Amino acid sequence: MVIVPEQERTQSDFITPEARARMLAQAVTSVDELYAINGETHPSIANKHTAYLTPLLVEYLKNSPFCVLATTNADGTVDASPRGDAPHAAIVLDYTTIAIGDRPGNKRVDSLRNIVTNPHVGLLFVVPGIEEAVRLNGRATISTDPELLELLAIQGKTPKLGIMIEVDEVYVHCARALLRGKLWDTGSWPDPDTVPTLQAIWNEQKNLPPPDESEGKRQEEYRNRLY
Predict the structure, then answer these.
(1) How many domains does the chain contain in total?
(2) pTM above 0.85?
(3) Over residues 45-53, mean pLDDT
(4) In which region does residue 118 sit, left (phi positive, over 0), alpha (psi from -120 to 50) or beta (all else)?
(5) Residues 6 or more apart in contact with residue 123 via CB below 8 angstroms
């Protein structure tokens, strides 16, 4: 394991070890304490989910080209993976089942390994320009069924695997988070050249020299092979 020297990890705006210890010592450790701080949930909010899609939820999903898939393995370790396809990240098989194609990637198969040991998943769907999101929790199955894979084909490329998700609960999430983050406000977006590239971050993590970006950033080969 590569150990980064402590002086290279320290920045002036980092908290002190004492402050970190104090924050951890004041941890919230019970559900009762959560409600004491936040107040009780209104019944209409606590029960806003359904165990099935409605026609308007189906319409929303048809417009969502991106989602985040959260999975957990048998020992509780969590992973969140971005998933994207145009025009929609998932297809609706029926009112209680959706499916996602597993596209070419780095072959770590983090999400798939987790699903094999623990089928429970959570997904967050977004639509560009729309602040409200849709959250869906369910149970996933990895399938090699030819008919399913054909349904998930894009640009003539059929995935090797499909992820079927049976809906346990689905509901709309209000716009506050995306409004606060100004996600779709182009005026708040940073200059791309000021954001570290994948290669630069990789090299730093592995204590390698910075990459040569003199001919432009974000020239990774994978951008030319999406399917």
Answers:
(1) 1
(2) yes
(3) 91
(4) beta
(5) 67, 68, 69, 70, 90, 135, 136, 137, 138, 165
Band of residue 197 on the pLDDT scale cut at 50, 70, 90? very high
Compute the radius of gyration of the chain from its Cα atoms: 21
Contacts of 204 (CB under 8 A, 6+ apart): 196, 210
Tokens read off for 146: 């030819």
Q: Tokens in use for 8?
A: 């290279």
pLDDT in tens, 154-163: 999 999 999 9
**Average pLDDT estimate for 181-206:** 95
Q: Is the pLDDT of residue 2 over 90?
A: no
3-state secondary structure of 68: strand
> Has residue 142 been placed in a domain?
yes
CA 48 – CA 170 distance, rounded (Å): 9
Query: Which CATH number do you get for residue 153?
Result: 2.30.110.10
Contacts of 226 (CB under 8 A, 6+ apart): 103, 104
Do residues 99 and 107 touch, judged by C-beta distance below 8 A? no
Specify if 141 maps to a domain: yes
Which residue(s) pair with 172 in the sheet? Answer: 134
- 126 CB burial (10 A radius; 0-12, 13-18, 19+): buried
